[in-house]
Amino acid sequence: MPSKNESVLNPKTTKYEFLGPIGAFLMITVLPILTCVLHLSCQFDDNPSRHWVEGTQLRDGSKLKYKVNGFYSMILTLFIIISILNTKGHEPLLFIDDHFIGLITSSIIVAFILSLYVYLASFQEGKLLALGGNSGNIIYDFMIGRELNPRIGSFDIKCFVELRPGLICWTVVNIAMAIKQYHELGYVTIGMFLILIFQGWYCIDAVYNEPAVLTTMDITTDGFGWMLSFGNFTWVGFLYALQARYLALHPVHLSRLQITFIICLQAIGYAIFRGANNEKNYFRNNPEDPRVKHLKYITTEAGSRLIISGWWGRARHINYLGDWLISWAWCLLCGFDDIIPYFYVVYFAVLLIHREFRDEEKCRNKYKKDWDRYCEIVKWRIIP
Ligand code: NDP
């Protein structure tokens, strides 16, 4: 017979069980709709210009404006989650673990519908296509993304999907996994607590520094297709929550020394990652910005300047190194009993190395001999 305490902490089913797969589908469609409504409506002061940021120059010489209020969308979603926890208790969030497969399947369906829409819409006249996504091969173009900046009015689909539904879903799934662990154990382990802080920080930091996404490859170069749609809705939203899900099902107890080491690793990784990304972003937006005015650079025939000191003088993709160190910190929190949580560092290394090759090729084509000159000054690729 289970004790009274056990039956309260560890019920076999929740009262939301009856919602089943349809509930899972509705939940997945509600999240993008909610983030979309927040995106369109959020404005927290009376100065609209603070919410609109100009992107980098496009091939046709124009510049697009982007609404940046991801941080507020994230905070409001967290507020909604806290309100649900306060009023309805843990059960609504336990639904996420109970229906994990249904939720993932639903997110794949949503990602597919969106990529199909942007693929078909890209054939309208006057659309600016991505250079790499216009091969004529239907499957390839559908995957990679045909149109560079699919928009409905001023609503930029790619920029929205890059930072909103995936990162917000990942944060919500992590919280749900912590609740699940609490339900099973009666407490939350330090590892789970740190995952919530580290990954929550990563997501909140990304939406707080939303303008930085405008100078990344995804926005400036890649089209929006299945890869980014599935990547953000499903891969980021659910697979990136792997460590939290693992810890919910297999709690791990770490020593103080291990925890101290992991915290230091996370801090070093974050300092490199955020330092490098901000440096480039500030510089590209305004080279006279006092935060980056001191940096050395070379001018290029293509018009852009390439930084050759500071973070970008150490390696050509030092930002990837920071991101990879962070991914190690997350996996190490899962201990050493299983290899499964380490899938993330391996996958991420492959992603970053492949991305580095792609970006190198893009920059070599764009900057030609100026890129050779740059590579002679900044010799290292990712690790200095
Ligand atoms: P980067 O932010 O590294 O941007 C690359 C571009 O920056 C180049 O194409 C070039 O563009 C410009 N550039 C290159 N060198 C210089 C320089 N010396 N000075 C000024 N500009 C330069 O690319 P990503 O979009 O790949 O990465 C952004 C961040 O996102 C990274 O930190 C990465 O780790 C992270 N990321 C995370 C993922 C995840 O799943 N967690 C997935 C992918 C990325 P231009 O043509 O303008 O010169």
TrEMBL record:
This is Delta(14)-sterol reductase ERG24. The chain crosses the membrane at residues 20-40, 68-87, 99-120, 185-204, 224-242, 254-273, 327-353. Belongs to the ERG4/ERG24 family. InterPro entries: ERG24_DHCR-like (IPR001171), Sterol_reductase_CS (IPR018083). The keyword Membrane applies. GO terms for cellular component: endoplasmic reticulum membrane. It comes from Dentiscutata erythropus. One of its GO terms (molecular function) is Delta14-sterol reductase activity. The lineage of its organism: Eukaryota, Fungi, Fungi incertae sedis, Mucoromycota, Glomeromycotina. Pathway: Steroid biosynthesis; zymosterol biosynthesis; zymosterol from lanosterol: step 2/6. Its EC number is 1.3.1.70. It is a multi-pass membrane protein. It is an enzyme of class 1 (oxidoreductase). The keyword Ribonucleoprotein does not apply. It comes from the Eukaryota. One of its GO terms (biological process) is ergosterol biosynthetic process. PROSITE patterns: STEROL_REDUCT_1, STEROL_REDUCT_2. Its main location: membrane. Keywords: Lipid biosynthesis, Lipid metabolism, Membrane, NADP, Oxidoreductase, Steroid biosynthesis, Steroid metabolism, Sterol biosynthesis, Sterol metabolism, Transmembrane, Transmembrane helix. PANTHER family: DELTA(14)-STEROL REDUCTASE, DELTA(14)-STEROL REDUCTASE TM7SF2. It catalyses: 4,4-dimethyl-5alpha-cholesta-8,24-dien-3beta-ol + NADP(+) = 4,4-dimethyl-5alpha-cholesta-8,14,24-trien-3beta-ol + NADPH + H(+).
